[in-house]
Amino acid sequence: MSVKGDQISATMKMTYEKRRHQTCRVFELKIVKDRLNKDQEERLKMIFVEAKWCHNYLISKMNNKEIDIFSFQQKELSHITHKDKDGNDVEVSLRYIGSSMKLGMIEGLRSNIKTLRKLKNKGKKVGRIKFRSDYRSIELKQYGVVYQITGRNRIKVQGIKKPLPVRGLDQLDKYGYSYDIANAKLIKRNGDYYINITIYYNDENKSENDYISNQIGIDFGCETSFTLSNGEKIDVFVEETDRIKNLQRRINRQQKGSNNIHRTILSLRREYDRISRIKDDKANKLVHKLLSENRQIIMQDEQIHSWKKKHGRKIQYSVLGRVKDKLVSHKKQVFVMNRFVPTTKLCYDCGHAYDIQLWDRKFVCPNCGVIYDRDVHAAMNMVWLYNNLKDKIGLGESEFKRVEFDEEVHRIFGEWDNQTLKHEDATSLA
């Protein structure tokens, strides 16, 4: 390795070690379109157009085995060919998209190919990376080079001469100057533009000893969105608005392909985007509440997306998926156990295991006669199993991982993937 390579490797190691002890946050900033001049509008538009051209060009070359993406260099993307409206190949010179943006696209393709290969090696059926009719997200790496905050409400982006006016930078004020700005994303969504900035900061006001000593289990459900082991039940729903229904009716009456229907579709997308932001806000507040009030959270890895087939809009209107994904990302504080662990079938009091039907909303133990709410009982068992098996193996919270938990559960309950229980072994846990 060269001297420069050694320096880069050493810097990356230092950064990685530093990031381990920092907290990550992502902030979305909206670019104010009304305050853009014509040159800024044109350059923003063309950055995404050229990104689409680059992506499709690379996919075409990869499919024809003309390039190896893992050895391909971004400087080779100065001139490319793309198809015009008539399907003819046209050679163009890329004027707006920067070199670092091109590199981010190439690295993104490399990462996607590696992921597909891993899935294929595991026996999964995988397809190909597809061409795009639109490009909606561009990586902005290297703060200070590709993008930079130049004022209270201004961000300079590579390829655009003047800084862009944005809203939302005031979100960073509470962190003062004690944070590091990392990568960002330039996003196009429903006719508007956004910049998502990632920061890392040292949370000096919070240590492991500052957490309330609570442990809590969370049971995800359809009847009640979130049921906690302390008996608390939480429902969070954001339903479709009347405006969405009216816009959908208007689309049905308008002529396909007309300018009017395109404007209505854009309005509909913006309304859906507004509702999505409301859901994110509610999910963030709930996750913050759970994490700030509890030292340890235990939950199961439920496949919530599959619930939509049976429960439809009730799942669609909830924030179940958002809350689950956000909690899973907090690996130090959240323990996720396999969804097949029989938390519903075990008696919390005596440890006996019994089958219970989906329509049974109460757990009644035939052995000891105790009665529990089904969902509260399942959440209580999550905490009970976690602590019992952790102590049984003799590991601390920082050492106790899902693989050790799964192995011990499998040893005790047998083929629990098939929901077959060994009753005699289950009772030994009590």
Q: Summed up, what is this model?
A:
The chain is of the alpha+beta class and about 425 residues long. Helices cover about 40% and strands about 20% of the residues.
Provide a descriptive summary of the structure in words.
- The chain is an alpha+beta fold and 430 residues long.
- It has three domains: 18-201, no CATH class; 208-336, no CATH class; 338-429, no CATH class.
- The protein has eleven helices and 16 strands.
- It has helices spanning 3-20, 38-63, 99-121, 242-253, 259-293, 308-311, 313-316, 320-328, 374-393, 402-413, 423-426; strands spanning 23-31, 79-83, 89-93, 137-140, 147-151, 154-157, 164-167, 179-189, 192-201, 215-220, 226-228, 233-234, 296-300, 334-337, 362-364, 371-373.
- It has a seven-stranded antiparallel sheet. A five-stranded mixed sheet has the order 12-11-10-13-14, with helices on both faces. Strands 2-3 form a two-stranded antiparallel sheet.
- Helix 2 packs parallel to helix 3 and helix 4 (242-253) runs antiparallel to helix 5 (259-293).
- Residues 206-211 and 415-430 have low confidence and may be disordered.
Strand content: 15-25%
Element order, helices and strands?
Answer: HEHEEHEEEEEEEEEHHEHHHEEEHHH
Taking all Cα atoms into account, the compactness measure Rg is: 26 Å
Query: How would you state the average pLDDT, rounded?
Result: 82
Total discrete domains: 3
Shape: globular
- Major beta sheet summary: 7 strands, antiparallel
Distance between the termini: 58 Å
Q: Low-confidence spans: pLDDT under 50, at least 5 residues?
A: 206-211, 415-430
Given the structure, what is the number of helices?
Answer: 11
Please report the total strand number as a whole number: 16
Identify the strand order in the major beta sheet: 4-8-9-1-7-6-5
Percent helix range: 25-40%
